[in-house]
């Protein structure tokens, strides 16, 4: 029940911000969420890091989000470059006081690529024509996939999808997740993107649904490497924020570049 209540409340808040929130508010919400996810990630991979240093590394990780406010990839990449330079300068200046300086560089640097860069694509997406509708499609696919995979896998799961990484995930759950992705995508197309080609939406749904499962497994690899069950306890019944957005981290950039380089085919 906790899982259901938390999911409904989070979905309602997201819809309000996505459909009616002004761009500055949307940017602020995404930036704050990215900061929380960075804090969870750094707590897992650098648990002994000084609190003040952790806060500074999170601040550096906000720079790609700040750059993405322009709505252009160049702004995002500029912010990412500054974040990496700042990380290296800080590590060089504090080298003698850091127990594992290379671990700080590699693990925090990966965080900027994995979390900051990928999350910032949500801001780039909303800047596109019909950006809010495409973001609604993306999140509907992600939520429906996660929910359908969880319940299908719980009830019907027999064949393990990737036993070494996540013993609870099954091929039946994966198939249920794809079915959920497809159903959600068709509903959003009917309500918000009726001019879009049906086969284009089906292709996006199946592609993003599949990649979302990879995103989920990718976070599981990180948690398993450091012996963490969840990324945190922020969301009752779900774990941490990173546990909920792991699928979006890969699907948001993919959708953005699909729309930019393949266009938006009409009927």
Series of H and E elements: HHHHHHHEEHHHH
Number of domains: 2
Categorize the overall geometry.
globular
Please work out how many helical segments DSSP would assign: 11
Question: Structural class, please?
Answer: mainly alpha
Describe this structure in words.
The structure is a single chain. The chain has a two-stranded antiparallel ribbon. The chain is globular and about 60 Å long. With 267 residues, the chain is mainly α. It has two domains: 1-127, no CATH class; 131-267, no CATH class. Helix 6 (101-126) crosses helix 11 (248-261), helix 7 crosses helix 11 and helix 8 (171-192) packs across helix 9. The model has no long low-confidence stretch (mean pLDDT 90). It contains eleven helices and two strands. It starts with a helix and ends in a 6-residue tail after the last helix. The protein has helices at 2-20, 23-45, 51-61, 63-68, 73-93, 101-126, 131-156, 171-192, 198-225, 241-245, 248-261; strands at residues 160-162, 166-170.
């Amino acid at each position: 029940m906790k899982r259901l209540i938390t999911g409904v409340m989070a979905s309602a808040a997201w819809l309000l911000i996505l459909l009616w929130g002004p761009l500055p508010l949307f940017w602020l919400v995404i930036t704050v969420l990215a900061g929380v996810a960075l804090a969870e990630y750094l707590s897992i991979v650098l648990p002994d890091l000084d609190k003040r240093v952790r806060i500074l590394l999170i601040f550096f990780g906000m720079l790609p989000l700040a750059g993405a406010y322009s709505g252009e990839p160049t702004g995002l990449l500029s912010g990412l470059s500054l974040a990496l330079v700042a990380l290296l300068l800080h590590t060089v200046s504090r080298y003698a006081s850091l127990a594992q300086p290379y671990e700080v560089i590699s693990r925090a640097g990966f965080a900027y690529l994995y979390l900051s860069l990928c999350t910032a694509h949500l801001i780039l997406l909303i800047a596109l024509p019909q950006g809010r509708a495409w973001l609604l499609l993306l999140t509907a696919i992600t939520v429906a996939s996660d929910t359908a995979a969880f319940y299908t896998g719980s009830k019907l799961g027999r064949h393990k999808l990737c036993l070494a990484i996540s013993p609870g995930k099954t091929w039946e759950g994966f198939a249920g997740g794809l079915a959920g992705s497809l159903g959600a995508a068709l509903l959003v197309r009917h309500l918000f993107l009726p001019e879009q080609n049906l086969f284009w939406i089906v292709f996006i749904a199946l592609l993003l649904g599949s990649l979302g499962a990879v995103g989920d497994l990718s976070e599981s690899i990180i948690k398993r490497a450091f012996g963490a069950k969840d990324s945190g306890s922020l969301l009752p019944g779900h774990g941490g924020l990173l546990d909920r957005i792991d699928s979006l981290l890969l699907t948001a950039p993919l959708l953005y570049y699909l729309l930019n380089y393949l266009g938006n085919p009409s009927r």
